[in-house]
Design brief:
It is built from 4 helices and 10 strands; from the N terminus they run αβββββαββαβββα. Helix 1 packs across helix 2. It is of the alpha+beta class. The protein folds into 2 domains: 90 residues, Homing Intron 3 (I-Ppo) Encoded Endonuclease, Chain A, CATH 3.90.75.20; 82 residues, GCC-box Binding Domain (2-Layer Sandwich), CATH 3.30.730.10. A 3-stranded antiparallel sheet has the order 3-4-5. A 3-stranded antiparallel sheet has the order 8-9-10, with helices on one face. Strands 1-2 form a two-stranded antiparallel ribbon.
Length: 185
């Protein structure tokens, strides 16, 4: 069970994406940042003998309880950026539509892969956690990127979905090339 907004406001102040102690606690002074970084990269805070994720506590501090079945999403994919402006309340499906590109992605973008055998770019999306939907095959990466962006817009993906953490959002008219993503054609 998560703590109430009243309890959090009694024990912590909020400033610049951090909860600050309002009381003296062992090894921490009043006004110091609460919590530490977990192995998964999230900031966690010990409260009532439990470790809780700071971004969830910050959401509760500002907006009250998190409804059942909802999650708190980091818009910019940075697990340490817990500023309230960077957090949004979403369903699990909504959270899945705002993921970073996987580290092992050969193209550097989600939803696009190069099919060497056919000498084409293949675009697909996975809307609503259902089966993968193939958008089509394209001769150039630019055409594939344009089709992927249109599909993402149609299926309600967040504009930062598929962007590496810390990188700026690709505009829809982004001129990418195969040399930019390291493929030899």
């Amino acid at each position: 069970m998560e703590p109430s907004q009243a309890l959090l406001r009694d024990r912590f102040d909020y400033r610049d994406g951090k909860l600050l102690y309002r009381y003296q606690v062992p090894r921490n002074r009043i006004g110091s940042a609460a919590g530490c970084k977990s192995p998964q990269g999230y900031r966690v805070i010990g409260l009532n003998y439990k470790l809780l994720k700071a971004h969830r506590l910050i959401w509760i501090w500002h907006n009250g309880p998190i409804p059942t079945g909802r999650q708190i999403d980091h818009i910019d994919h940075d697990r340490t950026n817990d500023r309230i402006e960077n957090l949004r309340l979403v369903t699990c499906a909504g959270n899945n539509r705002n993921k970073s590109v996987q580290k092992n992605s050969p193209t550097g973008v989600t939803g696009i892969r190069y099919r060497q055998r056919y000498q084409h770019w293949e675009v697909s999306v996975k809307p609503f956690a259902k089966r993968r939907k193939y958008i089509g095959w394209f001769k150039t990466f630019d055409e594939a990127l344009e089709a992927r962006n249109a599909a993402y817009s149609t299926y309600g993906y967040h504009p930062s979905h598929g962007i590496k953490k810390g990188e700026p959002k690709l505009p829809s008219n982004h001129a990418a090339s195969s040399s930019r993503i390291g493929l030899s054609l």
